[in-house]
Design brief:
Blueprint (H helix, E strand, L loop, with lengths): L1 H19 L7 H33 L6 H30 L1 H16 L7 H32 L9 H22 L6 H10 L1 H15 L5 H21 L12
Helix pairs in contact: 1-9, 2-3, 2-9, 3-5, 4-9, 5-6, 6-8, 6-9, 8-9
């Protein structure tokens, strides 16, 4: 119950922090990048689904089946293609905007704790590369986990829980990406961050899950999800770090 309360209240407080910390402009930049990326992926997804459907049609002679079966098969191919592109799209978006989210996380911590940060250009490049590294690793782990779950879908009753399992896997690794923006400022190595995540896996899954739900809100979701999740997750991670042994080793150059 304590976990749910902390996560829920942090996401509610995030909207207030946006106003108090002057972060409203960051609704738009990630949103605009997301729209551009979304347009590219919709075009590619439509092209790929059409190509796959045509290949299946020629190989399996789908035209010989009834029109209803033919349409259902084409719809299934289109859904699978869009699903795959969503997984890639969301992960790629978080990698691209990681420098922005890292800066937002820093601003939020300054607002909440009063701590000032004076990172050098080299530090910022290091954070950028780490964000990309964490994002790519999370993406590949998500894909492997999702593929395993899909394969297990042939086993009853596991197949009944496939959507929930995929949602949890996606939330877990997405939440880790957001939490790491704060962890990197506390001198935690990627290995230590992973150990921290394992201990706080429920928080990570809840934060990533809420991000996914926000992200699915038509139009406005792509604008509010990255910013609100980054703010809320930063606040949550700061609370969790109070009990972490290395919480006093923050770099304040």
């Amino acid at each position: 119950m304590k976990t749910i309360n902390l996560v829920f209240n942090s996401f509610l407080d995030a909207f207030k922090i946006v106003r108090e910390a002057g972060l409203k402009k960051f609704y738009f930049l990630p949103g605009i990048i997301s729209l551009i990326l979304f347009g590219i992926f919709v075009y590619l997804g439509d092209y790929l689904s059409l190509s796959i459907a045509t290949a299946f049609e020629n190989f399996f002679k789908l035209g010989e089946y009834s029109s209803i079966i033919y349409v259902l098969i084409k719809i299934l191919i289109w859904i699978c293609t869009i699903f795959f592109y969503y997984l890639v799209y969301k992960s790629l978006l978080l990698v691209i905007i990681s420098p922005i989210l890292g800066y937002i996380s820093e601003r939020v911590e300054t607002h909440l704790t009063g701590k000032k940060f004076d990172f050098t250009f080299g530090d910022n490049i290091k954070f950028l590369l780490r964000g990309i590294d964490i994002g790519l690793k999370s993406f590949f782990k998500q894909m492997v986990g999702t593929c395993v779950v899909m394969l297990l879908g042939f086993i009853f009753p596991i197949n009944l829980s496939i959507p929930l399992l995929i949602f949890i896997i996606q939330g877990y690794f997405t939440g880790f990406s957001f939490m790491d923006y704060t962890l990197e400022r506390y001198n935690l190595t990627p290995k230590e961050s992973l150990e921290f995540l394992k201990k706080q896996r429920v928080y990570a899954a809840l934060c990533g899950g809420i991000f996914t739900l926000l992200f699915f809100i038509p139009i406005i979701g792509i604008f509010i999800a990255p910013l609100i999740t980054c703010i809320a997750t930063t606040k949550i991670t700061l609370e969790l770090l109070k009990d972490y042994p290395q919480s006093n080793s923050i770099s304040t150059k």
